[in-house]
Amino acid sequence: MGEFGHLGWPTAPAWSVFAGAAGRVLVLAGLALFAASILFWLLAPRHARFGRFGGWAFTLGGFTVFGAILCLGSLFAGDQFQYQYVFSRGDASTALKYKIAGIWAGQEGSFLLWATTSALFGILAAPRTGEHRRWFTIPFALFLGALCGILAYETPFRLIPEAGNLVPPTGAGLTPSLQNYWVVIHPPTIFLGFGSLAVPFCWAVAAMVGPRTSTWIAGVRPWAIAGVGLLGVGLCMGGFWAYETLGWGGFWMWDPVENVSFVPWLLLVVFIHGLIVQGTRSSWGGTNLLFAGLPFLAFVYGTFLTRSGFLADASVHSFAQMDSTAHKVLLGFFFVSLLGYLALWVVRGRTVRSEAKPLAGDGVHREAGYRWGVLLLSAMAASTAIGMSVPLFMALTGRQPRVVEEHIYHLVLSWFFVPILMLMAIGPFLSWRPKPLRATLGEMVNVLSISIATIGLAMLAMNRSDWTAGAYNGDTVAFPAGVQVPLKPWVLFLAFLCIFAAAANLWRLGSLWKRGRSSAGGFLAHVGVAVLMAGLVVSRGFEQKSQVVLVEKDGAGSALGYVIRYKGRSIEKGDPSDFLFDRNNKMLFDLRGHGEEFVADPGLFYFRNTESPEATPNQMVWPSIHQTLSHDIYFTLRSEEFDIGEPQMLKPGETKQFSGLSVTYEEMVTTGAPGVPGTRFGARIKVEAPGEGLSAEVTPELELTQSGLVPHFASTGQGVLVSMQAMDAASRSALIQLHRERPAYPVELFYKPMTILVWVGTGILAIGCAIAAWFRRPRRHSASEASERTEPAIEPSAKAPVNV
Q: Which helix (H) or strand (E) holds 723?
């Protein structure tokens, strides 16, 4: 029995002891099975049965990972807090969904989730790799074995040594910012995307090691498209989570941890577009073998970066530094996979020759469009990767790590963003055969006209809206070399590009719908990206923000044309210490203005640090969002305040301003003999605020006691307290501070137009990727389907896709 036996904690039930032991054993068994799978597949040329054994070992290894995460889930659901990982993230009083989310809320669990989703994709994809299965499975098993090796050191099944076999009544629970429904949905979704990255990586390895490098693209394409969809939706979910929780009014802040997901997504998009060219033109074969591995390698590097401890003080995300041995395993796997992959590509992949016939004629064509597109997307990915690595570079050179600020990203990436959107608009009208630019532009007249009309209507609506009419005049955007560009035309230009891209893809989608739907998913995904980008650009570019301080009870103020009045709390009964520590507590404010009336209910509660419960409680606030079709009103609280301005030193007869209140120090008043305990030193103070009807004379004091000077506050009787915090006997100066008798709440109010487009765009993107993956899935074809399938998907002049 451990040292907590005297507390009367119950003994751990037999099933939890078994689950913890089983979890540890399953991780080690997975490591052994993946090693066996590699060995069997290496021996497969000697006898066919070794290949079968290798496949079984790989599948069984995957199931051991599934078993390990089920064991961890059962410990969370059963409140088995004798395990360190469960104790740090579990709480007996939380809902089951948050207990389940505790599985992936920490470092060890997130590695287990990554191993689980990767194993799922490995088990599903391996049997479909055909002649590539042997060399697809070997690197995949090596990857999963490395994850099991990390989990052997960074295990979530470690017992708390002091607890022994006793179960603490509860755990520390999830941090308040994690207790949101997105923690249940977002990590599994985005980790499914991460797990999918291993499929194109391993398939490309197999293609380069195997006898043929041209037979893999049809198989890998639906997996890559599914990965883009899952990763893209996961990224958007993370943005929604930040928007609803962090209280800064935006979806994306270019945090290094966000970019670790964004860079692989961009590179996977590059790979998919490369596959389209290879499937249609039989070119880019060698380049695609390189593109296939980059998303996976970028994510492994990003995982090393986020778990290395370099970002501990530079990111809004908190990741503890890994166990040193586990970190070496991750670093070793990264270098082995990076150097091995690049060496293999140089020796084999780079030598793959194009089988495409030269294009006849002059003019613009689709392959050139794809070439520019992948170059721009690759440049955007590389720029973002450099930006997210800056804290690492600074740490390695002995400087304090700092993240690259948001405006720097905007300054750099806009050079890629603009031409990418233009290509998204022009691309659907390009032919695989060269065609005069004038003819291509001629086909786009209708789309261009629709786009101009749409942005014109948007400008007209802006001029008629009481929100935006006359706004933003004089606001600018910083460009390189100190150039300042007017904000309004710049944001409208970016919005026009998004509309142009969405309209062009919708136009082509409509014209091709009756001829074949295999390309519908791609066009629809482009529409989703354009709509999503329009929402991000407009909601951020035309955002308006105002601040106001509201005092509890009778406080009222105005911001952004709304009259805001404090209404109360959602929980008023009982002792304040009860509802202030209740995470369901909400502050209620009435808002009236712009022809509407609603109640904003931002959350506010306090929580104690479980590691130092005697410390001052921490405050947690989260915003309230009033959503309409045209805009969001984003209402967020800051920490409550009692002080009015900063303390100031005043000389007798001097007057100073304290946040709009005029304070005059008239004279010093002393009661008692100097140096004798009980003597009081007072400062006669006059406080005035003519606009608020406040005028009062008060005398805050400092009393000399055995333990030093003790302040005595003086009340104006009108909600303001005055204190003297220090005095200078020689000059008779006094350090004066003003306080509120009731707490005041600094409020930030945001107007964010067209935020709904972010949600709509995400939905369209997800549907588009699902349709694209569905139509590109490998399947057996009937004669009629085969006939339809060999028809060009995009245009009659295109070469028929090869096995796509």
A: strand 720-728
Pairing mode of beta strands 596-600, 603-607 = unpaired
The tokens describing 153, both together, are: 């050191």
Query: Distance of CA 88 to CAs 103, 401, 734, 798, Å?
Result: 11, 27, 48, 58
CA 37 vs CA 122, 147, 211, 333, 518: distances in Å: 13, 15, 21, 18, 37
- Interatomic CA distance for residues 590 and 568, integer angstroms: 10
Q: What is the pLDDT of residues 50-63, one digit of tens each?
A: 999 999 999 999 99
What is the structure's pLDDT at 321? 61
Residue of 696, 669, 667, 665 whose CA lies nearest to 680: 669
Cβ burial of 659 (10 Å; 0-12, 13-18, 19+) is exposed
Token pair of 298 as six digits: 């970028």
Strands 603-607 and 618-622, how do they pair? antiparallel
Q: Which residues contact 399 (CB under 8 A, 6 or more apart)?
A: none
* DSSP β-bridge partners for residue 551: 744
Element (H, E) at 596: strand 596-600
Matching residue, tokens 């089988």: 355
In terms of Cβ atoms closer than 10 Å to its own Cβ (0-12, 13-18, 19+), residue 101 is buried
- Using alpha carbons, select from 128, 120, 125, 138 the residue that is nearest to residue 51: 138
174-214, pLDDT tens digit by residue? 888 788 899 999 999 999 999 999 999 999 999 999 877 77
Centre a 10 Å sphere on the Cβ of residue 544 and count the other Cβ atoms it contains: 17
The whole-angstrom separation of Cα 347 and Cα 505 is 39
Whole-model pTM: value is 0.87
Q: How many residues are listed for the chain in this entry?
A: 804
Q: What is the pLDDT of residues 76-132, one digit of tens each?
A: 999 999 999 999 999 898 899 999 999 999 889 999 999 999 999 999 999 999 889
In DSSP terms, 547 is beta-bridged to 748
pLDDT at 579: 67
Does the pLDDT at position 318 exceed 60? no
Residue with the larger pLDDT of the pair 376 and 552: 376
Question: Can you give the pLDDT at residue 795?
Answer: 38
The β-bridge partners of 703 are 680, 710
Comparing 568-577, 652-661, 746-755, which segment has the lowest mean pLDDT? 568-577
Q: Which residue has the tokens 């700092």?
A: 402
**Residue among 268, 206, 285 at smallest CA distance from 232:** 268
Going 211 to 214 to 215 to 220, the CA torsion angle's sign is positive
> What is the H or E stretch that residue 276 is in?
helix 256-281
Task: Give the whole-angstrom CA distance, residue 91 versus residue 579.
Answer: 19
Instruction: Please state the φ and ψ torsions of residue 536, each to the nearest 5 degrees.
Output: -65, -45
Q: Supply the pLDDT for residue 198.
A: 97
Average pLDDT of the residues in 723-731: 87
The pLDDT tens digits for 728-740 are 888 889 999 999 8
Q: DSSP string covering 450-483, please?
A: HHHHHHHHHHHHHHH-TTTTTTTTT-EEE-GGG-
CA-to-CA distance for 605 and 478, rounded, in angstroms? Answer: 39
If one counts every other C-beta atom within 10 angstroms of the C-beta of residue 347, the result is 10
